[in-house]
Predict the structure.
Amino acid sequence: MAEKMAERIAEILKEPNFQTAEKSLTDFCGPMDGEFRNLLVDIIVKRWIDTPKDVPFSYARSIWNRKDINREEYQALLEEIRSYPIAPINKAKISDFLWVVENDFSNAKIAETAYCEHLKNTGAFADHIMAINRILFISKKIRSKEINEEVRKNLLIKVLEEYDNSSHAKIGYLIKTAMEEKVDTRYLIPYVENILKTYDDNSCDAPLIGKFCDLLEELYCRKNNWQKKKCITEPKLIAIRRRKIQAVRMEAEYAGASSKGNLMRKIHYLKEVIQLLKTIQGTEEERKALLQEIAQIEEASLSEMMVWSDKQDASGIVKELFRQLEDLDKEEALCYFASFLPIPVREKVKNQVLNRTWILNTIFPVKKIGRASCRERV
């Protein structure tokens, strides 16, 4: 029975497209254990991991670690499915999962080989993010002789070349990984510069533009053996930071134009610009101008702030209070004020004092005065 089910599942997993495979597994009508189905689907649909350090299959691992499942049966079934001619990416994921949960060297080697086969035979960037990250991690972890440093660099460049502008966030992580793997800066510098060119000067995607600017700056420092300094003088680095400043400035303009309620966000971005300008020599006047702009925004914001007022002549009450204060100590004066003067919220104040609530709890500490406490006198 298990062998027949494994054969049917393997037929589904000949399909490399995870969405098609997921639907077929979900609609599978055979006698498949529900938790095993959930585990297998999570393995097959896993697609995005950002760095080689990320550990995949979190949901499947949570199922595997439960005490109410038969791990031996699940493992045998996964290995049986893998023994059929399924798509390399699915073979790689199943083997990778078994290595992650069982730490078995043979599964790591199968995963490494299958991931490489998948990378070499397909050309879709989105389908390769997980494969390249897992190859990098596994090959280093097991000290692979087949996937050495040079092979890793070539595989990284292959995936970078496949990039289709689908996710700048994902490619940013991959560029960082390529830098850690010591891919040649002569390749990476123009690569990052071309991505930055996809943003026009009015783009306000400051987080991503800033990320690429930081990567580019690090690459130039590495190429030219420049020391990273808090305040820079190199024209190329100044140009990169100016690009980052431009993006943050556009975020500020967008925040200020969208609604009056976003003026505080605009101030936040302008202060960020000031901090960035501090890292460039000779920007004192620019920073002064920005500080003046911030002051004007704050003044305008305060002038537009709603103010509530209530006209009421309390001069008589105030005079009486001052007269009483001349003869009473603080606690007696406050008790008198709360008990006898016609203040609008007398009952509310009295209840707050008696019940030790809100800020009046600190004004009226528990302190015995004769036989009664201060609160009791209210």
Notes: The radius of gyration is 34 Å. The longest strand covers residues 368-369. The mean pLDDT is 83. The chain is about 70% helix and 0% strand.
